[in-house]
From TrEMBL:
Signal sequence range: none
Taxonomic path: Bacteria, Bacillati, Actinomycetota, Actinomycetes, Pseudonocardiales
One GO process term, biological-process aspect: polysaccharide biosynthetic process
InterPro entries found in the cross-reference section: 6-PGluconate_DH-like_C_sf (IPR008927), NAD(P)-bd_dom_sf (IPR036291), UDP-Glc/GDP-Man (IPR017476), UDP-Glc/GDP-Man_DH_C (IPR014027), UDP-Glc/GDP-Man_DH_C_sf (IPR036220), UDP-Glc/GDP-Man_DH_dimer (IPR014026), UDP-Glc/GDP-Man_DH_N (IPR001732), UDP_ManNAc/GlcNAc_DH (IPR028359)
Swiss-Prot/TrEMBL keywords: NAD, Oxidoreductase
Molecular function GO terms recorded: NAD binding; oxidoreductase activity, acting on the CH-CH group of donors, NAD or NADP as acceptor; oxidoreductase activity, acting on the CH-OH group of donors, NAD or NADP as acceptor
Protein name per its UniProtKB record: Nucleotide sugar dehydrogenase
Species assigned in the record: Saccharopolyspora kobensis
Residue stretches making up the UDP-glucose/GDP-mannose dehydrogenase C-terminal domain: 348-441
Length: 448
């Protein structure tokens, strides 16, 4: 395992499984002069920057000219230091931006990093991934390495890359090399930088796996090889399904703590002192972002098509979906306890992004919370220094309160606390509902 410990709750015996994974050890490196990154979103842009930091010539491809303009001008959701590094990469010519797919043909390796969301029915929406893979296949050439990183259902790599390449007459594993290596990027978390986060690679053949690992190794110190793209695809789904189930459990424990008069954060931290058999999460107002609310549905959808069910995962996802409604219910309860008719009451949501320190609204619990409060006739507003304007699923647009005053609101809901932001005004609000369970700046706050 090359010194890397497994995160397994198996009573400390993970050392017995060391031979189940193959740690990639690079030999004489292949000549990979240029790497093209397809899709420059929350995964693709950091991927391109990490490759550039490894002295790789990078071509960043995106079909959105607006996105390319945002990158060129530095208007992207990156920390200040990484924005400076991005500017230097662009100025020095080591990172070239383009919306011309023909540029992909000149690359020695192509990494696909496009979104894989779910639709309103929680069905996988592969439109962006299908389009990206069609483009990559159309410009593929011999000796190229193609790596899919987007989270998806098992078999996608073969379906969208391997089979179309073979139809073009390219022999996968001999003339072109294809692999799946799931992204492991944690936006806003500086404890999980790419260089220190191990990656998994599953190739169509052993040769494919090694060629792909040589590319991925430029971004991380540790790469592990698994037997196939399918094994790597399910690895990523399992990672995020575990998080979903764990977060659903954390919220249930928090509800139990509320009934028993206990602090769920204290209980979770105390349980976390056990060095084996426990991997805890903290409760909150719901689960947002590109991964946890979406990825488990890829496996549920695939199993459902085969007549199979996964009751534990299904119930965890239902529990996650219900969580924002619990916040709305608690707001109504607090208003009722104060003798305030919720129709026309003024409520402020503090923070709306799905995660502290990022400008990402995707799948944020704030969206159904705001919508639910509005449906009840509550005069609801929000304050978020990172998101000056947002759009609800209904199409309604809202603008952030730039300088809120606590006494202007009947209830303030603490949803997302951004690092460095001033929330001192919340102390003046008569009723504060802390949906993070950790906002202790207001002594009279209440939790879900």
């Amino acid at each position: 395992m090359s010194g890397h410990s497994l995160s397994l709750a198996i009573n400390g015996r993970e050392r017995l499984l060391a031979d189940r994974l193959i740690a990639f050890e690079p030999a004489a490196p292949e000549r990979t002069e240029t790497v093209a990154v397809v899709g420059l979103g929350y995964v693709g842009l950091p991927t391109a920057c990490a490759l550039h930091d490894a002295s790789t010539q990078v071509v960043g491809f995106d079909i959105s000219r607006q996105r390319l303009l945002e990158i060129e001008t530095g208007e992207v959701d990156l920390p200040a230091e990484e924005r400076r590094e991005l500017a230097a990469a662009l100025a020095g010519g080591g990172l070239a931006l383009t919306s011309d797919p023909a540029a992909l043909a000149a690359a020695d390796a192509v990494i696909v990093c496009v979104p894989t969301p779910v639709d309103a029915a929680r069905t996988p929406d592969l439109a962006a991934l299908q389009a990206a893979c069609r483009t990559v296949v159309a410009h593929a050439r011999r000796e190229q390495v193609i790596i899919l990183t987007s989270t998806t259902y098992v078999g996608t790599t073969r379906q969208l890359l391997v089979e179309p390449l073979r139809e073009l007459g390219l022999r996968v594993g001999e003339e072109v090399h294809v692999a799946f290596s799931p992204e492991r990027i944690d936006p806003g978390n500086f404890d999980h930088v790419q260089r220190r986060t191990p990656r998994v690679v599953g190739g169509v053949t052993q040769r494919c796996a090694r060629r792909a690992a040589e590319v991925v190794r430029r971004m991380t110190d540790q790469v592990y090889l698994v037997s196939s793209p399918e094994a790597a695809e399910l690895t990523k789904l399992y990672e995020n399904i575990f998080r979903a189930v764990n977060l659903a459990l954390a919220n249930e424990i928090a509800d139990a703590c509320s009934v028993l008069g206990l602090d769920p954060i204290e209980v979770t931290v105390a349980a976390g002192t056990k060095p084996y058999g426990f991997l805890g999460s903290f409760p909150g107002p719901g689960v947002g972002g590109h991964c946890i609310p979406c990825d488990p549905h890829y496996l549920l959808w695939q199993l459902g098509r085969r007549g199979l069910s996964a009751p534990l995962i299904e119930e965890a996802m239902r529990s996650i979906d219900r969580r924002p409604g619990r916040v709305v219910q608690r707001v109504v309860e607090m208003l009722g306890e104060a003798g305030i008719d919720h129709s026309g009451a003024r409520v402020l949501l503090a923070g709306v992004s799905y995660k502290a320190g990022v400008r990402d609204l995707r799948e944020s619990p704030a969206l159904p919370i705001l919508a639910g409060l509005r449906r009840l006739g509550i005069d609801v507003h929000y304050h978020d220094p990172l998101l000056p304007e947002i759009e609800l699923p209904s199409g309604a647009r809202m603008t952030s309160e730039p300088e809120p005053r606590g006494r202007d609101w009947d209830v303030t809901v603490i949803h997302t606390v951004h690092p460095g932001a001033d929330y001192g005004w919340a102390r003046d609000c008569p009723r504060v509902l802390d949906a993070t369970y950790q906002f202790d700046a207001v002594p009279h706050r209440r939790v879900l």
